[in-house]
Amino acid sequence: MKDLLLNTSIFNGISDESKEAVKKIKKRVIKYKINEQVIRAGDRIDDVCIITNGLLRCIEVSPTGKDLDAFYFSTGVTFPFYMLFGGEKYHSFNTFAVKKTTAVWIPWKELEPIIRNDKVFMNNILIFVSEFMCYSKMIARCIEYRKVIERISYWLLHLTKSSEAVYVPMSQEILSDILKVNRSSLNQELVNLQRLNVIEIKNKEIKIIDREYLESQL
């Protein structure tokens, strides 16, 4: 629990009383294998999940059973606060482990009163949910563009400020899934942008060198 408190943003700055209360809650720590299903659409939402290591892929399911958009939860992500505070009772997505993943499940019935009685805790949740929803809306706007270069340009421009680099903790396969583009087309465009000295890619960071060029693609 110590590492969980240190590495997860929602616990930053909460009171010692809240930390002790969270520590006393009986939790489930589960390790998932690659491709193992974690959540099924229709499962009741009884717990908050905190990913301490790994990556989950969530596929939204429509009321008719049709698969909709896919999105990812990585290390440090906590969910589904937006559904719990929104009054949802059941999960609306199927979730699978993309890689070996460890998750901590905390009963919502016991965690909720701790959050509500700690203003810092509640503020952390508000910020986390707001950032998550803003990112989700950004991706939704991004995939409205038709061309691969347009989607890449929009994604990069809206994830960074002028002096920042984008950290991409996933493979091109996952990024292509997020942007809803062909993997080979994505790689081709990224290579071309590097050749034109528009971006620089080192390890898993992408730095924009020429923002005007990306803006001209939109």
TrEMBL record:
The keyword Lipid metabolism does not apply. Gene3D superfamilies: Jelly Rolls (2.60.120.10). It comes from the Bacteria. Signal peptide: none annotated. The lineage of its organism: Bacteria, Bacillati, Bacillota, Bacilli, Bacillales. This is Crp/Fnr family transcriptional regulator. Residues 150-215 form the HTH crp-type domain. Residues 30-117 form the Cyclic nucleotide-binding domain. Keywords: Activator, DNA-binding, Transcription, Transcription regulation.
